[in-house]
Amino acid sequence: xxxxxxxxxxxxxxxKDDFSISRMxxxxxxxxxxxxxxxQGRVTGYGxxxxxxxxxxxxxxxxxKDINLFTQKDYFPWDLKNVSQIWNFVDCLPDGKxxxxxxxALEMSLLDALAKRQxxxxxxxxxxxxxxxRVCYGATIPLADKKRIIExxxxxxxxxxxxxxxxxSKDLKQNKDAIETIALMFGxxxxxxxxxxxAWNRDLAFKHxxxxxxHNIKILEEPMAKEDxxxxxxxEVIKSTGVMLMACESAASxxxxxKIVKEGCYQMINVKLSRNGGFRxxxxxxxxxxxxKVAFQLGCSIGESGILSAAGRILCLLCGDAxxxxxxxxxxxxxxxxxxxxxxxxxxxxxGPLDGPGLGVKINRQNLSFLSDSSKTVTIMRP
Length: 383
Known about the structure:
Blueprint: E1 3-14, E2 28-38, E3 43-49, H1 53-56, H2 60-70, H3 83-92, H4 100-118, E4 135-136, E5 139-141, H5 146-158, E6 163-167, H6 172-186, E7 191-195, H7 202-207, H8 209-214, E8 219-221, H9 231-239, E9 244-247, H10 254-263, E10 268-272, H11 278-291, E11 295-299, H12 306-317, H13 330-333, E12 350-351, H14 365-371, E13 378-381
Parallel strand pairs: 5-6, 6-7, 7-8, 8-9, 9-10, 10-11
Antiparallel strand pairs: 1-2, 1-13, 2-3, 4-12
């Protein structure tokens, strides 16, 4: 299969409602979509990356620059015959989280094209040792006022989902209101994780402990910056309550994860396909966690399109041993999508494999064109 050109799109995806977290306002997302054109247009492959600057220092501009650079390498598989070429290509790329979004988008587009050409799902390129034919996603509640949280809880309860993750702010009262509202709406029938996105300081973190104990919180996700000198002290206290600490922002690469596991502050890792650099690099992280018997959840970045949601679904189905699953929020979050397929989860958060080869989604060309910034589109021709 000959790749003739690579198109790189910068796309703004608008949200239906505000989905803010402590570190950023959530009204839209900036994603990068890679489209590879093969065999005179008979085969097209798509990949997506979602840069989060405060985590990996990546921006849409740096991702496009990386993709342009990586496709110029001698080892980029312009003549693509088998999946080992894709793995060799990824393994030759520079390490470091500051390249992971570009690696993810490029790798995904190559896998999608090859799998379509071979008439198979991308799932077939990976070990089936932990495969599950269904997974159950949880629901995430953003920073919001009490009225909005009640509305979201009613919707979540109606869908019979009780695995919840609630975003926390720097405001103790706002956080207290959110947790107590959820407890009121769900009674004792919930599994609740708190996610401050590393925004708390020592004083605020310790003030949350009585609230965490009272409402039987199971997981606290990256409450403070790992470099905070008071983090180790808070870690010892919170672990004594039986609450598990989960790393997220600080776990963007295999090198980061190895360091976290050896330090022993966190008992769980939040793994994300785009942030961790695509399938090849993400499975290296997961394999390391499995070998060291460290629990993990599979998460997502806020505002993924159907492309990244479909890839995330594949990852989830291949990891039936994950503790939690987050993602496939498409129709619940996005005002417009760039796939015709609805990749959203259903009642109970349940979701299974998508039909069709490759990622299993069809691109909506009209929406792709409408939502992309044409002035920023880059086309890379075959040398």
